[in-house]
Amino acid sequence: MSDSDPAGSGERPQPGVHGVRVGRIAGIVITLDWSLLIIFALITLALAGGLLPAWHPDWGPVTVFLTAAAAAVLFLASVLAHELAHALVGRQLGVTVRHITLFVFGGMAHMEGEPRTWRAELGMALAGPLMSLALAAAFLALAGVVAGPMDIDPEDPVKSIAGLGPVATVLLWLGPVNMLLGLFNLVPGFPLDGGRVLRALLWGLTGDLLAATRWAAGAGRLFGWVLIGSGFAMILGAHVPMLGSGPVAGLWIALIGWFLNNAAIMSLRRVVVEQWLGGVPASRVMERDFVTVPPDLSVRALIDEHLIGTSRRVFPVVEQGRLAGLVCLADLGKVAPEAQARTTVAALMTPLAELKVLAPSDKAGEALDRLTEHGVNQLPVVEDGRLLGLVSREDILTWLAVRRGGVGLRS
Predict the structure, then answer these.
(1) Which CATH class is domain 282-404?
(2) Where are the domains of the chain?
(3) Residue spans of beta strands (DSSP E) within 17-163
(4) Smallest Cα–Cα separation from 9: which of 189, 206, 203, 265?
């Protein structure tokens, strides 16, 4: 559901949303991460180089490749449907999901905060796997319709499949794959959907979200380490039941295990931070000791007078007492050294209209979510056009370290 689903599962450890936005579905922005090309290539090559030639030895290479590519695209569409199910059910249960990203390990339905009740968590978590299982049944039923009556020889089932056309073959492959996708995500390890189901049930029984998250994340880490161990065993030549053997498959299984282990850690850390921050306003954690610059200041003067000899990396641009934009260290690289004296800060800054800003009453937990979601380092705190302060992830974690001991938050 959520925010980091291997092949369509769990929570939100991703720092920001990157990739190509391809459109909206039901008002939800769909983004394709560049890493998605890896899984597309792996599926296409695996089908074109092994399964399809074995099923259809009489097919030509063009037919094999096009069928494999179509199967890969439809698989990714299935993952998108899985995530959309999470998002749309979550919307009905009060969870805001504004965008979905597909990436190498599956999909992410980016939630704005955690579900507010265990029932909302449970309903949203189950929606994805149920969609995958429904798709499995639909693909297999369609395969039967397209293929027509078939006499399967139990002694040689591949021989019966050899007579199928490309459409029926793709549908026949998508059915079991979606079934495995749905069942895999029901493994009770956070942040997989099954782990969220486990957390919802524990949350409902104990009334303690943090304790439920600790137990579910522990199960997720355990499952991740099982996959890592299984992957290395496969790399060394062992045959692992249900996973198979071989170095390529083993490496992929180990990477998924590593991703799940890290996702579980980050998911737990996020919940701990949100619990500790509670109702702390952004104005409580913001930096007030900032240096502003006027829009007509030259880039050379900014460097000489404000940047060199300090650790500051961002400067608010203020005009007539009101915030006009921000200029950052990275912006300075856009100007050639010989042009710095005649280029003003206004030409480089990110204008206020394009900035993500906070109100002083916004919660620090919301600020941390926005910093992560938008992949930025600072957020200005603005009231009636006036800059009150800047909030960074470091500011929030420093506040936590002082107030709560900051156990494990910086690692």
Answers:
(1) alpha beta
(2) 5-277, 282-404
(3) 20-25, 28-32, 97-103, 106-111
(4) 189
Rounded CA-CA distance 9/353 in Å is 35
Q: Considering only 23-27, 141-145, 206-210, 367-371, which range has the smallest mean pLDDT? A: 367-371
Which entry of 83, 114, 366, 373 is annotated as an active-site residue? 83
DSSP 335-352: S-GGGTTT-BHHHHSEEG
Confidence at residue 11, expressed as pLDDT on a 0 to 100 scale: 36
Query: Tokens 């009770």 map to which residue?
Result: 188
Task: Sheet with 314-319: list strands edge to edge.
Answer: 314-319, 322-328, 350-351
> Does the active-site annotation cover 83?
yes
**End-to-end distance of the chain based on CA atoms, in angstroms?**
26
- Provide the pLDDT for residue 328: 87
Stated as kind and residue range, the H or E segment containing 381 is strand 378-383
Smallest Cα–Cα separation from 265: which of 321, 214, 194, 197?
214
